[in-house]
Amino acid sequence: MSKKIAATPPPIEANPRPFVYRDRLLHCDGADLTTLAAEHGTPLYVYSARHISHRLQLFKDAFAAHPHTICYAIKANSSLAILRLLAKQGAGFDIVSGGELERVRKAHKPALKKVVFSGVGKQTWEIDAALDADILLFNVESEAELHLLAARAEARSKVARFALRVNPDVFAETHPYISTGLSEHKFGIDIKAARSIYRSAKKMKWLDPAGVSVHIGSQIRKVDPFAAALTRVTSLIADLRRDGHNIRYIDAGGGLGIDYGTTAFDPAKQVAKYAAALTKGLGTESAHLLLEPGRFIIAQAGALLTRVLYVKKNGTKTFVITDAGMNDLIRPALYHAHHEIIPIKEPAKQPAGKQPLPETGENKVDVVGPVCESGDFFARDRVLPPVKPNDLLLLLDAGAYGMSQTSNYNSRPRPAELLIDGATTKLIRRRETMRDLLAPELL
Length: 443
Ligand SMILES: Cc1ncc(COP(=O)(O)O)c(C=O)c1O
Ligand SMILES: N[C@@H](CCCC[NH3+])C(=O)O
Known about the structure:
By secondary structure, this protein is of the alpha/beta class. The protein has two domains: 2-48 and 300-438, Lyase, Ornithine Decarboxylase, Chain A, domain 1 (Beta Barrel), CATH 2.40.37; 50-298, Alanine racemase (TIM Barrel, Alpha-Beta Barrel), CATH 3.20.20. The chain contains twelve helices and 22 strands. A hairpin with an 8-residue loop joins strand 18 and strand 19 (377-383). It is globular and about 70 Å long. The model has no long low-confidence stretch (mean pLDDT 94). Residues 73, 76, 94, 118, 215, 218-219, 253-256, 292-296, 400 line the site of pyridoxal-5'-phosphate. Pyridoxal 5'-phosphate binds at residues 255, 292-295, 401. Its EC number is 4.1.1.20. Specifically catalyzes the decarboxylation of meso-diaminopimelate (meso-DAP) to L-lysine. Pathway: Amino-acid biosynthesis; L-lysine biosynthesis via DAP pathway; L-lysine from DL-2,6-diaminopimelate: step 1/1. One of its GO terms (biological process) is lysine biosynthetic process via diaminopimelate.
């Protein structure tokens, strides 16, 4: 289902997000969000195709000097329409499950050739499916997995290209739940042990040691840890090449962060800094570079639209209760993540020195969902303009790890997703119904 939009959006460089006020109402690339909420209901995810493509292009431009493939990390947002959009612009994919492999197959089959497969717990059927699909590279995370890969490749008389995902023991400043590059983390293989594992892999006929991979975590804003990790990887690659391995790929992983706040953020500068750091880490070692960005591509292109159900006071607190809950966007509950929340109607400018807040009556509010947990919040003690029931709010930067981390907790149906693509609005996923909710149960 798609619909034409009349208005033209402002130039993309003006705002790292596609959401702007026009005639005092919020728009996404020319589409008015009030109308979209009325037509499609809330909660509703809205994405801008233009902004997604723009971010991919920024990555391509920043790495133009290196032979590279951008393998978008599907886990950030696995909507088929978004995968198709990226694949048509040349992207490959980083997958972590058989399910994500099937998504690539369904979205754009030729892109299977540009798939890298990461993850510490690959199962036999997933390895088999990836071998049959002839993916580009297995990022192997343990010796046991390497042996399983060798056995499955042999059973199919098929060569498996692999990279060991090494754990470089590099600290990346981010939330502890999404930091992955320290030796205490479950990810990868100790970089010191890698050389001897490559040596033994050389004896296995159906394995092709084609690369080395690393991924140190997510939402990393400073680029030095990326350079440090890659320096360790390239020193290993020099050793491996001396040992006679034909290493053609360096997979530098993903993890480049964005600004979830309101400080000036220039994505082009950020990715250029990132590219410079990786180039520094590469030194004189060259190989085809694989990059696995997720959040940087999709986070700011998307937002979650929700309607206020109730405003109430408990003690000194004022609660704004929305129709979206932690099952629709879990990042604040899980990581205490900050998402800007803006009203769909542009707040009237308050006269200096006055604070008329008739609806909420308080400057600071907690924005919470309907789920039966106190952890079900989107913001605590947040200063918001006056808010009343039926108002619409937009939770910004929810394009990454938003929809892909939704659940049916409290038996709540998952929201719909809209893609604003040029002059059209496309419903890319319909809202779940009660029938969808009950479908898998065998009674
Ligand atoms: C192996 C791997 N690659 C890529 C990514 C994407 O990370 P981000 O969305 O931070 O770019 C992740 C998630 O952290 C990951 O685990
Ligand atoms: N889910 C996390 C990112 C996880 C990255 C996965 N490797 C977030 O919302 O920030």
